[in-house]
Amino acid sequence: MARDPVRVLVTGAAGQIGYAIVPMVARGVMLGPDQPVILHMLDIEPAAEALKGVKMELIDAAFPLLKGIIATTDVVEACMGVNIAVMVGGFPRKEGMERKDVMSRNVSIYKAQASALEKHAAPDCKVLVVANPANTNALILKEFAPSIPQKHITCLTRLDHNRALGQISQRLDVEVSDVKNVIIWGNHSSTQYPDVNHATVKTSSGEKPVRELVADDKWLNGDFITTVQQRGAAIIKARKLSSALSAASAACDHIRDWVLGTPKGTWVSMGVYSDGSYGIPPGLIYSFPVTCEKGKWSIVQGLKIDEFSRGKMDATAKELMEEKSLAYSCLN
Ligand code: NAD
Ligand code: LMR
Asked: pTM of the entire structure?
């Protein structure tokens, strides 16, 4: 029997990530090859013409799974009945800026769009915030949309997770799909902590710890961490634009695993509302290792945390607390 289409909202759809992600959604990369979709695309008035162009291209691509397209600058029309909301709209960081620098412009957008989502999205809507500062925008969205269940509001740290997998695969010259269970703790910023203490690689003689195979703690505790933390800035330096294809792909990975489930024995990183796990203060959207089943995520429990990790996990939590108060001061 044909499935009902899922309504997927992409805000900032005329921008770089928007342009990369909408064909992925329409091709089934996000929700699977058998799931029809209706795309809701939102942008602002100055980008209305460009948005029209994206709609024309989507029509021209004749995607069999794409059952409808709404391209609008009206936030209410955009949010109406959506099941998945990918919040990309906002202002990207430019060379030399920290993510905090885009704070004042972006948090007010998330406060305003929170109410539209709360009032008009489908009751089961799953929200992924991509726009920076991603964790704090998601927190503001959560706080100004109190009727959306807090477990339905998340932010993107899967890009950082995938970057960590990529660095390990390059270093060991192994397939990236054979590396698993890295963790991104904390903020999608340069204080994030990419942790390989529980990560493994599939080899012909079974799964082996990444630490044992790399056999270079200096690299794993040093350059590996800073490379992942600084990768966004390195892309901006090289492209003069922030990452887009990898961000779009990671956003699809995030939603796909959340909706369809993580493979057995594998976890992924998602920015989610802290419940106090691992001593991280509640009241923050913090990236944790999670597994997903039947559309629900759960934080992986019981991982051993050494002193080095503890310091880094607390430092990124501290930055998030500072961002939270800065966000509120911007909104006041
Ligand atoms: P972009 O400037 O190319 O596109 C952003 C789009 O958002 C523009 O079309 C703009 O008109 C639109 N927009 C602005 N205000 C809006 C509003 N109120 N409602 C709807 N749309 C609005 O930027 P981009 O490169 O696509 O990046 C988008 C965001 O994603 C930036 O904040 C960037 O820093 C962030 N980002 C996050 C990650 C991550 O891993 N979390 C990765 C890459 C980029
Ligand atoms: C990224 O990580 O590539 C994005 O968040 C863009 C940025 O500002 O670093």
From this structure: 0.97
Domains of the chain: 6-155 (3.40.50.720), 157-327 (3.90.110.10)
Measured on CA atoms in the order 121, 71, 8, 106, is the torsion positive or negative? negative
In whole angstroms, give the CA distance from residue 96 to residue 292.
36
Which of 93, 129, 191 has the most ligand 2 atoms within 8 A of CB, as the residue to mutate?
A: 93
- What pLDDT band is residue 192 in, cutting at 50, 70 and 90? very high
Residue of 40, 152, 161, 188 marked catalytic: 188
Interface predicted TM-score of the whole assembly (ipTM), two decimals: 0.99
**Helices then strands, each counted (H, E), the chain:** 12, 14
Assess whether the C-beta atom of 109 lies below 6 angstroms from ligand 1.
yes
Confirm or reject: Cβ of 163 under 6 Å from ligand 2: no
pLDDT in tens, 40-88: 999 999 999 999 999 999 999 999 999 999 999 999 999 999 999 999 9
In one-letter notation, the amino acid at residue 278 is: Y
CA of 232 to the centre of ligand 2 (A): 4
Ligand 2 atom closest to the CA of 134, numbered from 1 = 5
Query: DSSP states of 247-281 as a string?
Result: HHHHHHHHHHHHHH-PPTT--EEEEEE--SGGGPP
